[in-house]
Amino acid sequence: MKCHRIDELMELLQPAWEADSDLNLLQLLDKLGKEAGFDGDLKDLSDEVLIYHLKMRNSDKNEAIPGLKKDYEDDFKTALLKARGIIKE
């Protein structure tokens, strides 16, 4: 599991770092953390925050989070009926 997260993070970091190639790695991580709203110490910045921020960084602010998109319903009534088992998928 950890290898998958490392690979995913490295794949997402590469284009971001190439776009800000004047920054060293710690400066880039600090910048990404601040963009994501993280205000703690850099050592406490989790890979999950970085991964989700890098995935959502250039997307519309109203777009669903990728991990939640599969369960997303535009219509509340439909979502409620599916949750109660009245509508089968």
UniProtKB/TrEMBL annotation:
User: What highest taxon heads this organism's lineage?
Assistant: Bacteria
- One Pfam family recorded for the sequence: DUF1040
InterPro entries xrefs? DUF1040, YihD_sf
Mind telling me what this protein is named? Answer: DUF1040 family protein
What organism, scientifically named, is this protein from? Answer: Gilliamella apicola
